[in-house]
């Protein structure tokens, strides 16, 4: 995989979430209080407090039966308004897709990648527009046709209406998703060329931490950059003391396969400074090290398999054949793994003048594979989470704007998340975005984007001042900078309100590459992101429905 | 005060109610209701009358919390109009039956029953009762989009009664109904009144209002112009009506002689039935004697 999966920072994200919700709620409450005072005069604070009390009352008097009734209504509405027609498009797509996808020239793992990516993308690209339209049009149509009059004049709370709509659309979406995913799974199994069927697996990797030794044998954070702008891969020079050192935790008997082999899988890259021996690839060597006893056991040389990677079955009994060859036999688990389950593997490039490139995920211990369906349905679950997120946002937005506007708004949020969120992150100084930008740009000292704000930029353009020229000192400059700082703070809030959808897309990459979808790095953030939006979306929808006149044209 | 001298219990209290519609920029567009104050008492049928744009539907929607008053106060069943708990005891039939057209009649009532937190058994029993009451039992499994306007109106009424409401708000209850359905609706209103329910209705059909309402309010331009009991408002103080059946020509001549003797201005005529009565009688006779032609000989049809 071409990304480094790291565990989701739950605590950090929760604190940010609380700050954003707190800030947004405070702004809404202050604006509402001011609007109430303007509207009803000195009684404003009392009216505001009463309304707030009534809202809290609504929150604690929710009725599951009413919510279920509204959810069932929503479900029936979607089904009877032919939302399931999406299956027709899905069926047509899958009936003819096989014609264009079968290519026996490709390596099996690439065929798997193409088929799996196609199915998962087809599912998400079909289901997301459907739920987006359903969620964004339901309530506005209800208001336009006034069928909502017969609901809100019953004891149904407007909060229940919002939740009921969300639950109903979620049911519809989940049913469609379940059918599509099962059909898609069957289609992959049936259509995938027989030669590639063996690659339809769900790898369970144990990933380790990666450090380096430079050509002199000194510890280093990174290897050599051979000129790639993206600094994801680091290179070690052949026939020097340069090493890439992986430390794996949790290794034990359970990590071996049935025959007692340790499976090490790598995706090393090569960078050649000369043509070398054209009859073979570049040699590399594993050395297994027990960091507690300092026992070092080199493994026979191997050649890298560029582009595809290779899996080495390391017999648990190793014979020391290295420089200090003593012919002694070592058991990987008993002699080379520490009591705490730690195993260190050093990788050296053997060919002089050649370089071996690697990133942290490029070497891992491959434990027993799980059925492909395990990872596949986890990825489907992540698509489901994204679908729920779209539904929550759609229903929420549709409580205060009409259907087309709501659709456009939610679509824009999704698009901004995919295209402009990183740019916004650089402006507001998000540490994760900056770290990613540093990796991709190679600028290790990259900080948040500096420069003037909106007003300062306009000023500089009008007065033909370049960014390095100092602004004149005075009250107007101070005010301008103050306003710009306020705008950046507002941008920070907007940036934080826009969901990070990267995790949802990553799930597909895991499965397409034959890996299990990591729970802590992908499934968990998908679940938490969706949950984090549920509450605020419900409250926003409720607030909007409560303060608006449903009869207003 | 009631006839027994006891103060009457006000189910709806409206005080100085004003509604101003504004445009996007907050500028006044129209004053739909202006300083309206009135009470509706328990157990009466109250009619809100007025021409189009007089503010009667706006008033009704403010009572229901669908619109917010610009000024003034509303109390319904002792609670604020914005308090959703009041809806537990209210039934509402909108001007047009804004129901979910993809639901069947049975599903419609079941859905609204759920909104009142009714149990499954109660919902089923009430659904059966109401479908029978509004005479759409035969179409209980059909989607509302297949219903005629009259049937939709009937199912709309059924949903308004699902919770045994104490207060029923009816917006144009007889619109879209044929005379038979209209008569059924009026009978039902009177029946509900007999059960002690309070009914507020808006209508353009003055004859209907006259038939069922105890008190009326007439609005014009958003302002209250007339408020009072229907019988008192319509009573003509300087005229007397004597109705008699089986009066012989001799007896009629004697009565006229007496009236002449006292100098009274009078007019003797045979009262005519209204069109509704004729229609209902025709339909009833058609039901009783199927196949019989009831068209009276019309001299104009003779060649």
Compose a concise summary of this entry.
Chain A has 553 residues and is an alpha+beta fold. In chain A, 53% of the residues lie in helices and 14% in strands.
What can you tell me about this protein's structure?
The complex is a heterodimer of chains A (553) and B (303). Chain A is α+β, with helices and mostly antiparallel strands and 553 residues long. Chain A folds into three domains: 9-61; 62-198 and 370-547, no CATH class; 234-358, Jelly Rolls (Sandwich). Chain A has 16 helices and 16 strands. In chain A, strands 2, 3, 5, 8, 9, 10 and 14 form a seven-stranded antiparallel sheet that branches. In chain A, a hairpin with a 6-residue loop joins strand 8 and strand 9 (296-298). The longest helix of chain A has 37 residues, at 108-144. The two termini of chain A are 53 Å apart. In chain B, the strands form two sheets. In chain B, strands 6-7-8-3-9-10 form a six-stranded mixed sheet, sandwiched between helices. In chain B, strands 2-1-4-5 form a four-stranded antiparallel sheet, covered by helices on one side. The mean pLDDT of chain B is 84. In chain B, strand 4 and strand 5 form a beta hairpin. With 303 residues, chain B is α/β, with parallel strands linked by helices. Chain B has nine helices and ten strands. The longest helix of chain B has 16 residues, at 179-194. Chain B folds into two domains: 10-234, Rossmann fold (3-Layer(aba) Sandwich), CATH 3.40.50; 240-294, no CATH class. Chain B is globular, with a radius of gyration of 24 Å. Chain B has helices at residues 56-64, 105-115, 120-133, 149-160, 179-194, 206-212, 230-234, 249-261, 275-288; strands at 10-22, 28-41, 45-49, 71-76, 79-80, 90-93, 167-171, 198-202, 215-220, 223-229. Classes of the chains: A alpha+beta (553), B alpha/beta (303). Chain A binds chain B through residues 54, 58, 63, 65-66, 68-70, 72-73, 76-77, 80-81, 145-158, 549-552, and chain B through 61, 64-68, 82-85, 87-88, 90, 92, 94, 96, 98-100, 102-103, 107, 111-112, 114-117, 143, 156, 159, 163.
